[in-house]
Design a protein that fits this description.
With 201 residues, this protein is of the alpha+beta class. The chain contains 4 helices and 5 strands; from the N terminus they run ααααβββββ. 19% of the residues are buried.
Length: 201
Amino acid sequence: MTPDQERHDRIAHLRQLGVDSLIDYRGGFAELGRVDRDLKCIIAYLEDIADPAWTSSLRTTWSGLEILYALRLADDRYSLTAEEEADVRYIVAGLLQELQGYQIPLTHEDKPEEGDTVRLRRNLPEHRLPAGLHGTIIVDYAKYTDSDEPVDYEVQFTGPDGTTDLFENLSADDVEVVSRPSYEATLREISRPASDPESRP
């Protein structure tokens, strides 16, 4: 595994740990403390390996949880009012959105997936397609078979004359991933605070 792939996998793992912790939030002071500690550690690790703009934004959003938790401790109060709980859930939803909305940079070792934009690595003279042409993975046949045969893809290209064709039996060696659609948020329903969220900073 290359350093780029290892970094990619570490970011993906840490992001998933953060998502799992936030989704598991059940409400209350003890849960606030747990999520606060979890995200503090996860963000600290991400800051060493991930995009600084993203981790800075995560830290800024997370600091709202830290402040709420610290103020309750300072007041020797170990419960949350309804308004505080609503604020916590608002911040939790924001953190979930930031974590799941971030697209981890791809590496050359990433296996193509359906929906990916790929670049042709070699000329395909039989189809009059030059190396470097971009296309979209339409079908990843490995998803639909248990075979150990080499992975094949159906890729949609727009040819030099502007026509669109589908080509089957392109292997992973024929293409490299250029971009991947943004991750879809599959969040559980998290209630927003009663106040208008648009009025929040």
